[in-house]
Amino acid sequence: MASLKKETPVNERENDTCHCPICLEKVRKPKYLSCYHTFCEACIETYISSTATHKENETLLKSIECPVCRTCIKAPRNDISNEEWASELPQNKLVLSVSVDPEQDENKYCMFCKRLEKTVTAKYWCKACMEAICEDCKLLHRAAPILQNHKIVNLSNIKEMNNEVEIEESCNLHKGKILDVFCHDHQELCCSVCHVKQHKLCKHVDTVEDIAFETDRNAMKNIALKYADLEKVLEDMLLENLNKTEKLIIRKHEICMNTDKKVEEIKSLLDNAYAKWLKRFEQNHADSIGNIEIASDELKRFSTTVHEVRMILHSVLKCGSSKQLVITNHKLKKQISAHITR
Ligand SMILES: [Zn+2]
Ligand SMILES: [Zn+2]
Ligand SMILES: [Zn+2]
Ligand SMILES: [Zn+2]
Ligand SMILES: [Zn+2]
Ligand SMILES: [Zn+2]
Fold it and tell me: Could you tell me the pLDDT band of residue 10, with boundaries at 50, 70 and 90?
């Protein structure tokens, strides 16, 4: 495993250009938030417009959450427009300088001259100004003491342009001041003003230049390798999660299918049982009604016989002899008992 890791083509990763986490394209006009996440200016402006919120209390500054790390980022002022907010964000000069594209329209003409409303083809790139310049403005760099140290390279020499990049990072708190001191006690990069104001009593403060002198590039390369490993681990974990989700979806489908099948089976069993019960119930019902009808019929006949018997007995009593009465009574009794037997 360890030997495998050493073979990871980290160089390929080193050459990866910086991509905007919002549009996923090569970042254009890179701007960074205070959490150091970098986005295209246009992308972060759109993001601010759609997500910036005012807290209930209007006196609090409006804010956004960083789209990557969710850190709360406050607007510099409350009356600032979303466009101003995006354009006032600091430029990520490092990202800008490692991704300079001489073919891009804004690098075709000298920026110095453009400010004087002149259009002059640019031939060079000043690594400190981060701008394309013309022949004359290259000479101007030599003449002005403040510009003399700027590294100027040929715009056509991409290799040289991407070499020995050195950006003078400016302090976010103190305009125009360069971050050139590191306080070990606070683990913070500071400008000369920060140093005097907040780190005067700190014991371990070095200039960035001194630290750079002692920095072991190989150790840094190892750190880069570690980050590449970490990225791989995270990619693997994400892939694993994706697989888990996929498996869960398949399992859900299976469970639903099986349950549906079982429910259908139970339904059909219930339907059958109901149909059988209904059939038997209807039969029993019809039988009961039939029996009652038969009994009623018999009762009607019996009732007729009783009526007749009563009428005959009545007339014999009225005009028959006693002997006739005995005979008739016997006959009638037999008629009645025949019914009772039935
Ligand atoms: Zn973007
Ligand atoms: Zn962030
Ligand atoms: Zn010029
Ligand atoms: Zn310059
Ligand atoms: Zn400062
Ligand atoms: Zn300090």
Answer: very low
